[in-house]
Amino acid sequence: MKTQTQLFLELWTEAGTRFTDQLTILKEADLKKKLIPSQNSVGFLIRHICEVELLFAKNVFGAAHIKVSAITVKEKRDTGVWTDLQELKDYTALSFKELKSIIEKQTDADWHSEITTKEFGTKTKAEAFGRVVSHTAYHAGQIAVINKYGTY
After folding, report:
1. What's the pLDDT tens digit per position in 51-88?
2. Which of 35, 84, 122, 136 is most buried, most CB within 10 Å of its CB?
3. Looking at the 3D structure of the chain, how many domains does it have?
4. Domain of 21?
5. For the whole prediction, is pTM greater than 0.85?
6. Peptide bond connecting 37 to the previous residue in cis, omega within 30 degrees of 0
7. 13 Cβ partners below 8 Å, 6+ apart?
8. pLDDT-derived band at 125, boundaries 50, 70, 90
9. Has residue 37 been placed in a domain?
10. Short-list 98, 43, 39, CA closest to 68
């Protein structure tokens, strides 16, 4: 029988393919696409997903060694600087590795422990995990639509 941690990892990995599969078809020029009147580009959303995953690894799951400046969260707007596809792919790999590593360290009891943040209040780690999974999937959907219908 699988542990809760193993099941959550499977769920997160599968849900994450909605995001990571898109990275294989993107071209560097696609990173500048926007869906008017939205201000967020594909590149901005990729960076944002990674920053939020790193923030969850650090602040929700306790990976204290992680350093993340969360520029997209602080700026709250696209400044047009996320245009290097390889850099964004590397950052995606880093955020995946760090979040996966800290999730693997969770015990079944940890998933029931509560965490409080100013962004979403008090939740169990399982509930908080649902937020990061849905956050990535939500923005992955935006990326797909912007890449299909957006303009430069």
Report:
1. 999 999 999 999 999 999 899 999 888 999 999 999 99
2. 136
3. 1
4. 4-29+43-149
5. yes
6. yes
7. 100
8. very high
9. no
10. 98
* Section 112-137 average pLDDT: 94
Neighbours of 94 (CB within 10 A): 15
Query: What is the C-alpha to C-alpha distance for residues 44 and 101, in angstroms, rounded to an integer?
Result: 25
Take residue 120 and report the two structure tokens written for it.
């979403």
Q: CA–CA separation, 87 vs 65, rounded Å?
A: 21
CA distance 43 to 85: 8
First to last CA, the chain: 49
Residue 35 within a domain: no
Its sign, for the CA torsion 64, 69, 75, 77, is negative
pLDDT of residue 152: 86
The sign of the CA dihedral 22, 27, 31, 37 is: negative
- Domain membership of residue 89 (yes or no) is yes
CATH number at 71 reads 1.20.120.450
- Segment 23-50, tens digit of pLDDT: 999 999 999 999 988 889 999 999 999 9
Residue 122 lies in a domain: yes
Write out the H or E segment, with its range, that includes residue 96. Answer: helix 85-104
Residue 17: count of CB within 10 angstroms of its CB: 11
